[in-house]
Amino acid sequence: MNQHCMIIIKALEDGVMVLFSSVEGTECSPPERLDNGEVLLLPIPDRYPGIRIRGHAHVFAPDHIVEAESGLVIGGRSQ
After folding, report:
1. What pTM value is reported for the model?
2. How many domains does the chain have?
3. Neighbours of 58 (CB within 10 A)
4. 37-48 residue pLDDT tens
5. Per the domain annotation, does 1 fall within a domain?
6. Cα–Cα distance, 35 to 57 (Å, whole number)
7. Spatial distance between the Cα atoms of 65 and 79, rounded to a whole number of angstroms
8. How far is CA 61 from CA 3, 17, 28, 47, in A?
9. CATH number at residue 28
10. What is the chain's mean pLDDT, rounded?
11. Is the pLDDT of residue 2 over 70?
């Protein structure tokens, strides 16, 4: 795997939540809370098979740009 691949999440409103889930689908680390304009850089998830984003954010991945409005799931499954 390319170690330089990153997912970038940019909050477009206050209170965007980034949650990480394990293989079992359970929350596996504390969520990150982003406010408007804050950016979170993540390596392509090897530790976390699922990332959930709650709120309005732009998500930049190596091959995609996505605008999350609420409840976006990257990998894993929605609950």
Report:
1. 0.72
2. 1
3. 15
4. 999 998 865 666
5. no
6. 10
7. 23
8. 13, 18, 22, 17
9. 2.60.40.50
10. 77
11. no
